[in-house]
Amino acid sequence: MADTSSRTDASTDGDTDPRDMGSERGQGILAAASDSSGRSKDKLDQKTVRRLAQNREAARKSRLRKKAYVQQLENSRLKLTQLEQELQRARQQGVFISSSGDQAHSTGGNGALAFDAEHSRWLEEKNKQMNELRSALNAHAGDAELRIIVDGVMSHYEELFRIKSNAAKNDVFHLLSGMWKTPAERCFLWLGGFRSSELLKLLANQLEPMTERQVMGINSLQQTSQQAEDALSQGMESLQQSLADTLSSGTLGSSSSDNVASYMGQMAMAMGQLGTLEGFIRQADNLRLQTLQQMIRVLTTRQSARAFLAIHDYSSRLRALSSLWLARPRE
Q: What is the pLDDT of residue 13?
């Protein structure tokens, strides 16, 4: 019996219940899984924290950049407002020039005044040339003498277009407005000067008789000039429409800081569009110059002299009409 009891005790001490062993292994696995999940969660939390911190820093920098940008735009708007006020004061203090009723206009810049002075001198010299040309025709001067005078007149017109080109760089609006012309002349103004096609129509009846070849040459030149004028006019219409679309885009009538960026963008775009005006003036003057040059190639020397006199007399009559209009009695 004692032996049996000994074996029973040994069996009890040495053997382990399989259920207890399975339970311990399960607890170990759960503990390991829990520890792994905790570490993974810690890693995710650290990444999230870093990401949130980076996002907050990026947002802070973005706010600072936006604040600096808005401040810069606001300063630019204030400067633009100041310039507009100064321009308004300059206009109110503009210089008014009048000469025997022929000219009545106001300008606010040295460029416009300088051009007006140069144009006045150009007219004086042109009047001298026309008197010389008229005397030569009345005296039945030879073609050689007339050619010298005609070439001088042509060179004088080239000088006018050079003067206008320089003036367009300083104040293109002064040329477009025609304030350097008399009121009657301004009625016929096109892009800062005369229409070549209309001028050729005017001369057609003044230069007879012409040969058939000359008639064809003048008609062809008139049609070419008309086509070029139409193209330039369409370009100007497109420019005006683009300007209107640019300036009317966005919200009008609001001066809040939220619209500063849009406002400055509109002004920058409009300024770029206005920069093309000088090109339109230059192209129109090139067309006028080329028309005169082609005209004297088609005509004889004597016909060219008569053509320049006809142009001069027509302009003189327009200026005289302006003087009469300005001096008319008013009720």
A: 46
d(CA 329, CA 325): 9
Dihedral angle over CA of 172, 176, 180, 184, nearest 10: 180
Distance of alpha carbon 144 from alpha carbon 128, whole angstroms: 19
**Secondary structure of 25-85 as H, E, C letters:** HHHHHHHHHHHHHHHHHHHHHHHHHHHHHHHHHHHHHHHHHHHHHHHHHHHHHHHHHHHHH
- 223-247, pLDDT tens digit by residue? 999 999 999 999 999 999 999 998 8
Strand partners, 190: 193
Q: What is the separation of C-alpha 287 from the centre of its chain, rounded to a whole number of angstroms? A: 21
Q: Which two tokens stand for residue 12?
A: 């009890």
Answer for the pair 281, 168: CB distance below 8 angstroms, yes or no.
yes
How many beta carbons lie within 10 A of that of residue 295, not counting itself?
25
| Residue 294, C-beta contacts closer than 8 angstroms, at least 6 positions apart | 221
User: Residue type for 257, please?
Assistant: S
**Non-local CB neighbours of 160 within 8 Å, separated by 6+ positions:** 119, 122
Question: What is the C-alpha end-to-end distance of the chain, expressed in Å?
Answer: 157
DSSP assignment of 90-149 equals HHHTPEEEESTTS-EEEE-SHHHHHHHHHHHHHHHHHHHHHHHHHHHHHTT--HHHHHHH
Better-scored residue on pLDDT, 88 or 200: 200
For residue 13, give Cα distances in angstroms to 6, 9, 81, 275, 292.
11, 6, 101, 106, 131
Residue 154 near residue 293 (C-beta atoms within 8 A)? yes
CB-CB contact of 77 with 263 (8 Å) = yes
Q: Rounded to an integer, what distance in angstroms lies between the CA atom of residue 322 and that of residue 331?
A: 19
Positive or negative torsion for Cα 76, 80, 81, 86: positive
